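G.,

No rush on this.
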Amino acid sequence: MTIGTNGNYAKSYANHQLWRLHVTNNEQIAKILAFSRIAHLHDINFWSKHFRIHEPIDIRVPPQAIDDFADFLTSDGVKIEYVVHMNDIGAIIERQRILQNLTQSSSNTNDFAYDKYHTIEDIHAWVDQMVATYPEMVTPFTVGKSYENRDMKGFKISSKKMATKRDGTKVTAKKAVWWDGGIHAREWISPATVIYTAYTLLSKYGQDPTITQLVDQFDYYILPVFNVDGYAYTWTKDRLWRKTRSKTSVANCYGADPNRNWDYDWCKSGSSHDPCDDTFCGEKAFSEIETAQVAKFIADQRGTIVNYINFHSYSQLWMSPWSYTTTSPAQFKLQDDGSIQAINALTAVHGTQYQHGSVAQIISPTSGSTIDWTYGIANVTFSYGVELRDTGEYGFLLPENQIIPSGEETMAGLEALLMYIDKHVYA
């Protein structure tokens, strides 16, 4: 693993705490929502993006802000209760870094460890390995170059067989799905889970009847890491970096939130015009080369892709459009029933509980999101944003021993969802 020149990450989170706020009324919600817009000025970072009564809100607080933030939570006659959920985020990051160094997988890509987190270089080598190992099924593609000139590298899985309708007739125009991970750089369980599910499709094809059927019915576009620059940065400089790494109009403030940068109701609710904020929407819609190129790739497959999933962490949510409004789209029941199929199958594996619904209803309205564009512009009916494990015990610092369980349950959910989609697109 490449680390900072001082033997550690360049940005230290020593003595930073994670506070869990408990809000019980709308006054408290309004107070904390207003503060969220200026939190970055104090190096206070909201790990939770939802602001709802009786839903915990996780906030990283640096040591220099602890006293003032505690005072703020009791000020103005609106007291907000909290507990210190993590006493020292930096110590957790350091323990995980040491463990990763001790358990580094072999340099031989054939020994890729699916129960470990991997650098962007390792992941791209794994893509090459899949192409070499399954040449009849895997075709590499590069969406384009990132801002820092990295390849946005993925692959297509196809059995080359024709899909079959419910009545047994063959379909010449096979439908496709797109799954991507790592749109937010710090959410390491996301690429790890996408990698696990893609490998499961390949390694169990011809052995597992359900997977064999699903690979024959659909083509799969897999992009393990969307935000390649940001992800690389989390391995070398700042473990909790979220955005891209493009330059902005403000010195020393970098990147935009690639899940707020899409040209659909861009930069209204739930996003920021401040380049220093974690939810900065960009200077304009599709200002980020990464989002623009993924959008072009998907648009070029218009009419083919019927399922899009943007994997995130954390909170255990399976969400459909809309993100920008709590008003449900015309196809909401069709989409949400797919979510229900997925989470029921997922829960059956390890008992992990997920919620379902639209993004705006479950979290809060968010403009310029990926799935609003894929659904509203690219006409991908079954567009979802999935928040993986956990519900906040570890948050973005999910231990490696949860990678395989996350992959197993997510794969079960995907199988159930694809069986559901199959019935509707090949009717």
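When you get to it, here's the other one too:
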Amino acid sequence: MFPSQVLSIKTTGLPFIIILSALMAVTSLSTDIYLPAMPVMAKDLQGNAELTVTGFLIGFCIAQLIWGPLSDHFGRRMPLFVGMVLFVIGSVGCALSSDIVQIVFWRVFQALGACTGPMLARAMIRDLYSRTRAAHMLSTLMMVMAIAPIAGPLLGGQMITVTSWHSIFWLLGIIGTLMLISVFWLPETLPEEKRVQASLYGALCNYYQLLTNAKFMCFTLCLTFYYVAAYAFITGSPFVYITYFGVDPQHYGWLFAFNIVGVMALSIVNRRLVHRYPLEALLKFAIFVAALAAVVLAAATGLGFGGISLIVGAVFIFFCMNGIISATSTVCALDAAPNIAGSASALIGALQYGSGIISSLLLALFSDGTPWTMGWIMATFTVASAVMALTMQATKAGSEQSTIKN
């Protein structure tokens, strides 16, 4: 068992926000920090270093589906503790790897633990707060965690100039150890009387309940489709910026960071908006702005006008909306399944991060040597996300009419 709750921090204090933000940032940091070192890793390990990203995402998606029901049954702290231990072990394994097979294996192992951070941070917020307050808190967490994808590539790029890529994974091991220690100060947000008492098999059956929950799936698919588009940019942008437009690799990180600054800015704004407007209305507005930006991007890349400036501008607007879309869609989805928030958060995370696999496959299959492939993938799935937002509204209206008739 864990130490006495006397050591726990207050759930309304800055330390609580910082720890949850750091837990949510573990995933981004685990991938983004070593991106500048991938060419060197591929040479040293004599293999395709991109497999380390694929392996991490696969492990991340699958493991969440196990940890979710476990957290509903045993509480949030125990899975977080075990997860951080696995993350540290996986990081050390990556640092000691000498070939591509070894490091891909340890990246999968690392993901088994890393996934507990963002998944259970979301669940803990839902345990503690009502939907509006939860959206406010998630916007705050996203604002803080956005530092990771900005600092990660910049830090990794500097480290690789003075030391080997192994040191990056040693650093991740140290960060994981600090996160492990911080878990002891987190309160248990799911009291025993609210935990799922069914067997693990019964808890896993909750996924069927979630998949057949129309309201939950509308919000979840809205977020998933948006992230397919987002990962299309994350995966395709190195080719578009560096290879196609000839941007210096040292400046690529700044172009990427430019988008994250937009996410942080909208997250700050969203903290106020959630108290003034319905979450569904905010989500609908944000996703339609993102869809418009993605369609403009697809048209520009397809017709070959606007150049890199238009692409950078359209992508910036697209990513800015993430500050609203992620917070509102997550809270609304969790609100549709409050009694199994752990499983719900796990399924949201599995689909959200698994969307990156879809993006990478589509880019590999349909790449034509121009930015057009990235453009049409982003537009297609952002429009699909907007369609889900319309479906969500229709479902809500239908349920209201049914209630009035009854």
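DSSP finds 18 helices and no strands in the chain. The chain has one domain: 9-395.

Enjoy the weekend,
O.
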